[in-house]
Amino acid sequence: MYRGKSLMDVKKIMLTCLLCLVSFGRSAGAEVSGDVLLAPVSARAIALAGAYTGLADDVYAMLHNPAGLAQMARYQVAFNHVAGWFDTLEYFTVAGPLEDGQGTIGASLTYRGMPDIDNAGAVDSAIRSQDMVGVLSYALNLRAFSRSLQAWDVGINLKWLRSTLGDYSPSALAADLGVLWRSPKLPDLQIGAAVQHLGTKLKYIQAEHDLPLRVKIGATYNIYNIMNQEIHSLFVSVDGQYGLYEEHYSVAAGAEYGWREIIYLRVGYQYQPDSLASVVYSGLGVQLQVDQISLRLDYAFKPVLAASDSFEAEHVIGLVVGF
């Protein structure tokens, strides 16, 4: 009886904190910048259409829900390359558990470069445009405080963003907060929530721009034993997010099928009511085990609506090394 009351109290506290953060951050009509914070870089998450808030079970958790890092049982290093129709993006991250259940730490670095804006016929040289984001992460399972809270993970990201446009290079600081809950009655069900990019503003000359504040909630359900648990695996994931400054939302759903923990096939669907079209994503992964080291190569195909109202393809490749 006491345990049930304790869990209910925790849920109420989490919900109250989330609502307070939303109310604090909201400012309709604000100028928003720092879109590199929204750039999807995880090939696995992209193939699932970004439905990752409730999943968040690997090193990419810090991109979607930092609380998910607490699920990691070993260290992982990841490298990702995004070849876009207009820009290129490089991403490096590392995360792993501390000893004696002291939590999980992580760090990442993102670089995005875009072609110089040509000033043909003008005196000034071409305008350079690039972004860099550094992140430090920490996550913890709450059983460290009480066994009755072992179904809960919490996490935080601390971010530094530097955006360069011509002669201007403003910086901003931000934080992400995340929570993950596993159902005691349905152990294969996970529900997660996160508030992302809560921080200072970017200032170009005299204009100040807010960061793209996001509130996200998602759920994942693992479906085991399709025929044989050791051969087949399948999970489905759903996600919803809301941009508080832009006042728009999107919903996504994804699924991943695995064969012998070697081959993974992924598909995702995202719907944005203010977009010209909904988008279907796809991808695959191949995982190999070499002694105590695991290697997973991920690929995702991402259709992007270009300025000409036609779809261009972005190809995302990622490598995850576990040890």
Characterise this structure.
- The chain has 323 residues and is mostly beta strands.
- The protein has one domain (2-115, 125-322): Beta Barrel (Porin).
- The protein has three helices and 16 strands.
- The chain has helices at 2-25, 43-47, 61-64; strands spanning 76-83, 88-97, 104-117, 127-141, 152-165, 171-182, 189-199, 202-204, 207-209, 214-223, 232-243, 248-259, 263-271, 279-290, 293-305, 311-322.
- The strands form two sheets. A 14-stranded antiparallel beta barrel has the order 1-2-3-4-5-6-7-10-11-12-13-14-15-16. The protein has a two-stranded antiparallel sheet with strand order 8-9.
- Strand 11 (232-243) and strand 12 form a beta hairpin.
- It is globular, with a radius of gyration of 20 Å.
Secondary structure topology:
Layout: H1 2-25, H2 43-47, H3 61-64, E1 76-83, E2 88-97, E3 104-117, E4 127-141, E5 152-165, E6 171-182, E7 189-199, E8 202-204, E9 207-209, E10 214-223, E11 232-243, E12 248-259, E13 263-271, E14 279-290, E15 293-305, E16 311-322
Antiparallel strand pairs: 1-2, 1-16, 2-3, 3-4, 4-5, 5-6, 6-7, 7-10, 8-9, 10-11, 11-12, 12-13, 13-14, 14-15, 15-16
